[in-house]
Write a structure and sequence with these properties.
Blueprint lengths: L1 H21 L14 H27 L2 H23 L6
Helix pairs in contact: 1-2, 2-3
């Protein structure tokens, strides 16, 4: 069962990472990276880190190491929390 959940987590992390990386230079949600360089930076680093987490998560599917699984899941959660908090500071700006 944990393997199925890890596969799902890997797909979600990869999709989030790809979405952020692909929207570095075009508006997404309510943010416009072309007007605010900090949003561009957040999307670039947050997306890149989530793609790294997706690769690490794919590796954990084959390794099945409990410590590595926990580390990967925790790092992905912390990264997305940070991205969300940083982006929240730009809400309402146009």
């Amino acid at each position: 069962m944990i393997t199925v959940l890890l596969v799902l987590y890997t797909l979600i992390a990869a999709l989030l990472g790809y979405y952020l990386v692909s929207h570095q230079s075009k508006p997404f949600l309510t943010f416009d990276p072309t007007k605010t360089p900090a949003v561009h930076t957040i999307a670039r680093y947050g997306g890149s880190l989530m793609l790294i987490v997706a690769v690490a998560s794919a590796i954990t599917i084959f390794m099945q190491s409990t410590a590595f699984i926990a580390l990967t899941l925790a790092s992905g959660c912390i990264i997305m929390m940070g991205v969300g908090l940083f982006l929240m500071s730009f809400m309402g700006e146009s």
